[in-house]
Amino acid sequence: MLKVLFKRVFRFGLPILLYLCYCCFFTFSCQAAQFLPSKKNVPIVINSDRLEIDDELKRITFTGNVVATQGELKIMCKKMVVYYISSSNSKKTDATSNSISKIVCSGDVKIYRGKQGGIATSSKAVYYQDQDKLILTGKPVVKQGKSFVEGDRIIIFLKQNRSIVESSKNRPVKAVIFPRSKKE
After folding, report:
1. Radius of gyration over alpha carbons of the chain, in Å?
2. Contact 105, 124 (CB under 8 A)
3. Is residue 58 within 8 Å of residue 98, measured between CB atoms?
4. How far apart are the first and last CA of the chain?
5. In the prediction, which pLDDT does 22 show?
6. What is the pLDDT of residue 180?
7. Which regions in the chain score pLDDT beneath 70?
8. What is the structure's pLDDT at 96?
9. Where are the domains of the chain?
10. Spatial distance between the Cα atoms of 36 and 184, rounded to a whole number of angstroms
11. How open is the CA angle 84-130-165, to the nearest 5 degrees?
């Protein structure tokens, strides 16, 4: 009896489970990839309590009530450090003539996406410009409506429209998906 039940579950239940896992991963992969804008010509506006520019170390540090917006994207955190590289074709050597290499956000990081309605939260977020990759750590959660995914670390490959959610010994991957209604 147990053998027959196992065969039925394996034959019918496993493909359904694999399909649901695929749908879950694909849905969150697409949603997560929409968190950073692809419009490079849209200005970034950053407000904070304090700003420090260290041209020797090639970094700009924003601290206290940091709010950065670009188009429909809004990032809020306690501290944001922008690392930049010198532009080889520019005669200027200050921060205004350089391109961003990496952005590190820390302290109650919240990333909001306007019309898509998504939100990502974590203790730390690191964006790598050259790889167009975002890494969320410190209890990261990506939400879209009532659905969400969480793990120990969430890696979002923005150009590839792909995400990886990793677990740890103390924090397994968890995904809760609510089906979309036909009206959505």
Report:
1. 20
2. yes
3. yes
4. 44
5. 35
6. 75
7. 1-40, 87-98, 116, 182-184
8. 53
9. 2-176
10. 23
11. 115
Beta bridge partners of 154: 136, 165
Q: What are the structure tokens assigned to 15, written together?
A: 């493909």
Listed in order, strand segments (DSSP E) in the chain are 45-47, 50-54, 59-70, 73-85, 99-113, 118-128, 133-137, 141-144, 147-150, 153-157, 162-166, 174-176
pLDDT of residue 25: 38
Question: Where does residue 107 rank: exposed (0-12), middle (13-18), buried (19+ CB within 10 A)?
Answer: middle
Q: Take residue 154 and report the two structure tokens written for it.
A: 């969430």
Give the span between the Cα atoms of 15 and 85, in whole angstroms: 49
Please state which of the four CATH numbers 1.10.730.10, 2.60.450.10, 2.60.40.3600, 3.30.310.80 is assigned to the domain occupying 2-176: 2.60.450.10
CA contacts within 13 A on the Cβ side of 107: 11
